[in-house]
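Weekly structure sync, notes
Attendees: PL (lead), two postdocs, one rotation student
Agenda item 3: pending single-chain targets
PL asked that the sequence for the first pending target be pasted directly into the notes so everyone works from the same version. It is reproduced below exactly as submitted, 310 residues in total.
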Amino acid sequence: MKDRIRPFSVWSSILFGSALILAASWTAGGQQRPSFRAKVDVVDVSCIVRDRRGRYREDLTRHDFQVYEDGVRQELRFFHREKARTARSLSVALVMDSSASVRDKLAFEQKAAIEFFGETLTREGEAGAVVQFDSDVRLLHDFSTDPSKLAEAIMEVRAEGATRLYDAIWVTVRDLLRHQAGRRVLVVLSDGADTRSSVTWQRAIRTAQSHDVLIYGIGVKSSGFDADFEKLKRFAEATGGRFVNSKANLKRLRQAFNGIRRDLEYQYSLGYVSSNSKADGSFRKIRVELARSGLKVRHREGYYAAEPNP
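Predicted structure, written out during the meeting:
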């Protein structure tokens, strides 16, 4: 895969009057494979299933899953177990809080994040990107399959300024992840305390839900600063990811990243065409039930239907 280099420029032009800055080079994403949203209006639902002891279950079939939208059972059209050799392509955007409030924990973040990419991006079609946010939002490296290039970008992060968490999530989904085929994942390291965003947290969540993006939140807090881990939890719950409080400890950071990597290895992907064909922009609530007892399934809360034509 060849890098496509673009000069330093303004990312996404102007976001409500605030420039979002590009930094460093851009790299093409992984080889594209068919996704559920390619040509038909299919709702994609990624699921993680565990038993009562927290162990992943990978022996389920399509007959074990029942999907409901707004309480109405849907016909399951697609079923896929994301096994190593047959897994759909994976795009992971790492969004790092580099505001002053996490300055003394930045080295831990960098070390654990570099290890995560090295252990996760091991197969064809798996790519990562690095985004930094403080008073601005900067793309440090676009999607690349080379963990060493991503490591270089991660080490460029310097802590200063305010916190534009919601802007960072919104623009990363809108300008990066939504263009990627296959599975889309956003991992955010932050204290969760937004101080300067132009978009609301509700809008950021809606954008992620609209583009099938799973958000994983890792809480990192420095002493003497406020945190809002509940917001990180809300992003995760709404999209089917999960939140982990790292307690700003390197061992727990590593465990958090390892948990994300394991989730991605044990995913089920379900697809259905909604029985509600209205293009009304409404939120559709999703519920997944399992035929087997003693199991717990995690998935996104729902999605937004297409907007009506003007």
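Discussion points:
- The longest helix spans residues 250-265.
- Helices lie at 106-120, 147-154, 165-175, 201-210, 229-239, 250-265.
Action: rotation student to compare against the earlier draft before next sync.
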